[in-house]
Amino acid sequence: MSFTELGLQQTLATRLLNLGYISPSPAHNKTIPAILSGDSLLVCSPLGAGFTESAFLSIISLSATQSRSGQAYVILSASKEHKHITEQRLKLLVGEEIEIDISTDLEGSLLPKPQACIWVSTAKEFHDHLRNTPTIRELSCTLLLTETDEIIARGSKPDLLALGQYLSKQCQVIICTSRVTKSINSISSSLQHNPKRYKLNTNIEEPASIAQQAWPVPENMKAQLLLKLSSKLHNAKVIVMVRNDQTAARLARRMRTRRIRAAALISIGKLDILARFESGDIKILMLPQSTNNSRSLEDITHVIYYHLPDNPSDYLDVLNKAPNSVHMSLISPSEEEQLIEIEDILKRPILRNILIDFDYRKQVSNSTDESKSRKKKKQSKRKKKPETKTVWDPDIPRTWGDRNTRRPSPEKIPLEEWSPSPLSSIWLEDNIDRTTNPMPGEKPSRRRRKKYSRNRNENKSSRSKK
């Protein structure tokens, strides 16, 4: 089935082919027809499976074909930073071929403009806008909540619950979340009317149905991003795929310094580490690519590729072993070609993610430079002893130990009055070199006395043997 057969606009379907969407994924086949028909959905799936992307594509197609129908299209994100990332993703999908205005400013009216428009906002901003606009009552719109569990975690649950008094019963509400909790159910009952529920069902024969994410990052900042991501994975069982044993041991040590329970599966203590990982004592397991791991990975929640395998078939093997896991790849610019090869096999692009509270511009310095900078900081923190400078007084006599002492300068003799004094005896020609044998009557040195000392038989003895 093609994107056109699913009901998407022809220009949008052509745009998707140019972006690398060769065929619709299972998530596209499930949700796009339901959204286009006007149904409300409650989708439970992690990011990367394609359900949120299906909602984006459906809203773009609806806004382009029904720009004058009186319907408003609103997408709510978790924060202002998430809002701008959502705006960039929408602009990437739209391109220049489709005339749609994507706005993050709610100061204007939500009524449709002559040109199709999609509003991207946060729950608090949208609630404040509806509350401060008295003319808006029983609003009919298509509302999409992305990462609803993240919106709740940031304290916007009251704003979401308050939206129910402004929306009409015919309003189409789509809720995407990674897990269904009591808060999600209460928001669904407040905003939705008879929603259709969808949950991620993976199929080993279709690798595109498995949740997969790509995290672009410079090579020298991979370890920092891994630490940041692992600190956000709560109640998770994680495997990190690395290239060799040395990298595995180094990353495990670095994680343990941050109080993260991690270990490397290397030859030393391999059975003990596996037992601790299965019991839950170890949260993150570093697995070198050369390790032949025959155990099942069905209980693994996340698989992080610190290094992508050289062969795409190895990547697919891990997908088949852990179909219910979220597969996250840390991609450096040099690994972009390997990722494209994997995308060609999957017949769809992998979602690119950006971590909000992570500085991608920060450069990592070497350990030697860090130690030098630390030493300089310690030296600067130390209190310097105040130097006491004495003022020279000519009336007070000074000693040679004082550097401010006045040095005596001898009087200069005029050149015509100067005559050299006779040379000392050591410079005379008849002076005898003291290194030669002593003259008669002179005492030999102590060393010579030892050399020519006599033994008990009154014979001269010498330490040097001839």
Describe what this molecule looks like in 3D.
- This protein is of the alpha/beta class.
- It has 2 domains: 3-199, Rossmann fold (3-Layer(aba) Sandwich), CATH 3.40.50; 207-361, Rossmann fold.
- 35% of the residues lie in helices and 14% in strands.
- It has helices spanning 3-6, 10-19, 26-36, 51-65, 80-94, 123-131, 148-153, 157-162, 182-191, 222-232, 245-257, 270-279, 312-321, 336-346, 367-381, 446-451, and strands at 41-44, 72-77, 100-103, 116-122, 141-145, 172-177, 196-199, 212-216, 238-242, 262-264, 284-288, 302-305, 326-331, 351-352.
- Helix 3 runs parallel beside helix 4 (51-65).
- It starts with a helix and ends in a 15-residue tail after the last helix.
- The mean pLDDT is 81.
**Low-confidence runs:** none
Q: What average pLDDT do the residues reach? A: 81
As a percent range, the share of strand residues is 5-15%
CATH superfamily of the largest domain: P-loop containing nucleotide triphosphate hydrolases
CATH top level label of the largest domain: Alpha Beta
Helix percent band: 25-40%
Strand ordering within the main sheet: 3-4-2-5-6-1-7
Question: How would the global form be characterised?
Answer: extended
Order of helices and strands: HHHEHEHEEHEHHEHEEHEHEHEEHEHEHH
Overall number of domains: 2
- Give the strand tally: 14
State the helix count. Answer: 16
Radius of gyration: 41 Å
